[in-house]
Amino acid sequence: MLQPRMARLLLLPGYALLALTLIGPLITTLVISLGRRAPSGGYETALSIENFASVLSRSTAFLNTVQLSAFGAAICILAAIPVAFFIAKHLKGSVRYTVLFLVVLPFFTSFVARTYAWYFALGGRGLPAVLEWIGLGRFRFLNTDFAVAIGIIYAYLPIAILMLFVAFDRIGDDLLEASNDLGRGKVETFFSVVIPLAMPGLISTYSLLFILLSGEYLIPMLLGGGKVYFIGNAIVDLFLQSRNWPLGSAVAISLMSMMIVVAFLSQIFQRMANRDGRIG
Amino acid sequence: MDRKELSVWVEKYRRGHISRRGFLTVTGIGATMLGMGIRPSRALSQELSGTVTLATWPSYQNQANLDSFTEKTGVSVNMAIFGSNEEMMAKMQAGESGFDIIAPSQYAIPLYASGQFIEPLDLSLLPNYDAAAVEPRFVEQGTFDGKTYAVQKNWGTSGFIINTTMVTTPFTSVKDYFDGIRGPYSGYGVALDHPLDTVGFALKYHGYSFNSVDEAELKKAEELLLETKPHLYAVTTDFQPMMSSGDASIAMGWSFNAMQLHRDMPEIQYVIAKEGGEIWCDFYVITRNGPNRAAAYALVNHLLDPANNVLEFEAHGSAISDTRVLALLPPEVQTDPILYPAKELLDPLEFGIAEAMSNPLRNEIMARFKSA
Amino acid sequence: MRLAPEAEGGGANAPDDRTKGQRMNDGGGTFRGVTKKFGSFTAVNDLSFEIEAGSFVSIVGPSGCGKTTTLRLIAGFEFPTVGSVFIGGSPVERMEAYERPINMVFQSYALFPHLDVFDNIAYGLRSRRNRRPAAEVKARVNEIIGKMQLSGKEHNRVWELSGGQQQRVALARAIVNNPKILILDEPMAALDKKLRRDVQFELQSLQRELGITFIMVTHDQHEALSLSDRIIVMNRGRIEQIGSPDELYNRPASRFVASFIGDFNLLELEKPAAGGTVDVAGRVLAVPQERAGEGATIAVGFRPDALKLSAAAPGAGGEAWRATITNVIYLGDKVEIKLDCPSSGTLLARADVARLAERRFRVGDTVHLTVEDSDFHHFTK
Fold first, then answer.
1. pTM of the predicted structure, to 2 decimals
2. Contacts of C159 in chain A (CB under 8 A)
3. Architecture of C263-379 per CATH?
C-alpha cells in the first residue's frame, strides 16, 4: 500500500503535464487578452479589459454561432435518434457492430477532405447542376446557412448516433416489452418510455454537440464562404489576418465562457432528468 | 495529414480548385513543412550541406528548379506553404525561426525589415541578380532604409474578374463593382478575404487612396462594405470554382486568378479599374536567424538564373519584370493584357504599403465586415 | 403427434370448487402446431396444448428448453414460424403484444424507473388504446394499491421499494388491466427464500380471487408443484408431459419428467424388455397394463420414498439389492440417505425420521434394499 504522501508525489508529473498543456495555455490566453495589439500586429504588454468590450463588435458572429449550433445540434439529434434507436434495439450481435463501424467509418478519412467533398458537391457543378439537368431550376447552395447546416450535420451525425446509441442501449428491452404488454404500441412506447429514460443522454449529447459546433470554424469557412461566419472564424481571423492577438484571446475566452455555461446548464438538466428516473 | 495527402491538395491547388486561403486551412494553421527535395546523387559543393527551408505560397515554385538545386549543391529544399502574408507574418511574429528564405509581398517587407526578421542582402552572393534588368519601381519596393532587403520574384495586379455572359452592362470601374453588386448582380459578387484589397477598393470607390489610414475615409469605406455585405455571394479568396461554375459572376481578384480562369473560359475577363487599384510584387528575402544562410543565398541565386526563372514563370504564371527573362519568353506573353496590362491602366495603381497592412482600424474594419 | 391436446384429456377434467371470475370462459389458450425458429435454431418445436380458462398453469423445464419462448409467444413478443395461437377462441398469432388481452409480470419486474408507484400501475389504463377516464384510473389504481398492500407508497419511486414491494407493483400493474391471462415469468427468481413461500401463497389466493388464467414459467419444480393446477413440462423445445402435479409425480410419462419433477432413482435397462416382463438387476417385473401398448420398456425407476432399507439378510433380489450408505442428511422430520449400489449406482432413499427411529443408519453401513413391485415406474422413453 502506497503512503498517501508517496502517492501524491507520484501524481505530480501528471499534474505538471496537465498544468503545462491545459492551464498554461489558458493563463497565457488570459494574459494576452488583457494586453494590446502591437503596432505591426501581435501582442504588446498592457493591462486593460478594453478587448472584452470590443467582443461585442462580434455579436453577429456570436449570434450566428449560437443559432446555427443550436439548430445544427437539434437536427443532428433528430436525425440520429431513429438510427441510434434502430441500432440499439433492432440489431443484434455482429450486425450491430458492423453498422456501428460503418457509422464511424467517415472518421477514418480526413475531416477536411470530407468537408471539401461537400464544397464540391454543393458548388455550382455539383448538386445544383444535377437539379438543373432534372429540370428543377437553378439552385445555389454554397455560402448559405443551409450549406453550413448540411456540413455540420454530416460531420457531427456519427457522434450523435454513437452517444445516443449508448443512451438507448442502456434502456432494458424488458421496459419496452412491458410498455408494449401494457397496451402501448411502438410509437407510444417510444415517447412514454424511451425518450424520458434517454433524457440525460439526449441532454448530454445535445450540449456536447452544441459545444463542439460553437467551436467550429472549418465548415463555415468552406461552406459558408465568409457569408456564414462563426465565432471560431472570427478568432482565426483575429490571430492570422488582423494579427490582433489580444482581441482574439478575449473573443476566445468569451467563447470558452459560453461553453462552460452550456456545460454547466447541461449538468443541471441531466441531474434533474436523472432524479426523474434512470438511476436504480 | 501526411505528405501524400498533402501533395494531393497541393495538386488540387495547382489546378485552381483551392485558393491560398483554402489551402492554408486544409494543411492546418501555420506553415506546413514539405520535404520535397530529392536526395542528392552526389554533392558537388564542399561548403554547402544540409537543408534549406523556403516559406512560400502554394503552387508558387517550380519543383524542377528545386531538384536541380539539390542535384547541384547537395542541399535538400523544404517548403513551408502559407496562405497569406498576414499568416506568414503571424508565424514570424510568434517566433518561428526555421525558415531561411521567405517570399513576402512588397507591403510586408518594411515590417520584416524593421522588425529585424530579415537582413539586408549581400548582393555579392547573388551574382544572378541584376537590379538594372528589373523595373525600378519593383527594385524600390525591395529597398528599405536605403538597403536592398529583397529581390524580385514576380508581380501582378488586383482588379475585377467578370463573367461577360452574365455581366452584360459595361464594367470598367470600382464603382461598377460595388454598384453592380448592390444592384443588378446582387447575390453574384465575391469580395476578397484580404483586408488590404477589400478595404483598399472600398476606399477607391470613394476616391480615396488605396492605402488610406484616415479614420474618416475608412469610416466611409466600412459603411460601403457593410452595405455591400448582404448582396455578396462570398467573401473568400477561393472564388475560382464559384466563377467557373457560374455561381458568381463578379469577383475581386488577382491577375493570376484571372489568367487561370480566362485560359479555361474565355468569357471570363479581367478588368483593371480606371480609378486604380493595387499593383503588387512578391520577393525573396533571407531571414536573419535562418539555420542555413549560405544555402539560402545559393538557392535564391539559383532561382534568379534567367533560364531557371523561365521555368518559375511556367509554374506560377505571374508576370516577371526581369528583362533577361522576358527575352527568353515568347513575345505573346509580353503583350498579354492580363499579365502585362497597358501602361495607362497600370499608372493609377498603387503598391499596397506596410502601414495599410498593419493598420489596426483597417484590419478591424475587415473583421467587422466579415462578421457582419 | 402424441402430445396433441386430445391425447391429454386435460379439458375433460371437472372444474374444481374455486370461485371463478366472469371472464374465465374466454381466458383459455390454445397452441396448435406452433414452431418457432431463430435462424437455424428451433426454440419451440411443433407445440400443441390447451390451457383451461381460469386455471393456474406452470411451464417448467431446464434452461433452454423453450419455456421462455413459449411464454413470449403467448404474450406476443414473438410470433410463431409455423402454427396458431388462440386466446379465448380467437387467433392471436399475428397480433402485437399491445393488442392481446394479456398482461405479464416480468422476471425483472420491468418497472418504469421514471414513474412512481401510482403511475407505474396506471400505465396500462392511460395507454392511448385502453385509455380510461382519470377518475376511473384513480379509483382502480387506488383499489389495487390497497389490495396489494402498497398504501402509502403511491408516490414512491419504484427503486426505493423492497424486492417484495416491487413484485407487488409489477403484479398490480398487470392485473389492474383485467387481463384474460396473466403471465408470470419466474416471479420468485428475485426474491429471497423466506419471502418466496409467502409470495407463493399470495399468488395462489390472488389467482383464486381473480379467477383469471395464470401462466407461470419457472425452472423450480417445487414451485410449479405447489401452485399449479396443471404443469407443462418442456424439454428441448418439445412438451414432455402435461398434467396435474399429482399425475406428473405419480405417473411420469418419461424418464425426463420423472427426474425433473421431484427426486427419482432411475435404472436404465441394459436390454429393452421383452415378453411383458423386465429384468432389473435380477428382479423380474411385469410391465404394467397401461404401458403395454407403448413399446419396449427401456428404463425403470422409483421415488426415494419407495425405497426401504433394512439390515436383514438378502432376500429375493440377492447381492444386487445391497448397498452402502454414503450420506445421511436430516431434513427436520425427514431423513435422506444416499446409497452406493453396485448394480444400480447412486440411489436416494427418503423416509420419516419417526419411522427410522428404531434403526439408526450410519455412513458405511451395508443395507438391504426393498422396493415394492407396484412402486416401480416403467418408461418407454
1. 0.82
2. 279-280
3. Beta Barrel (2.40)
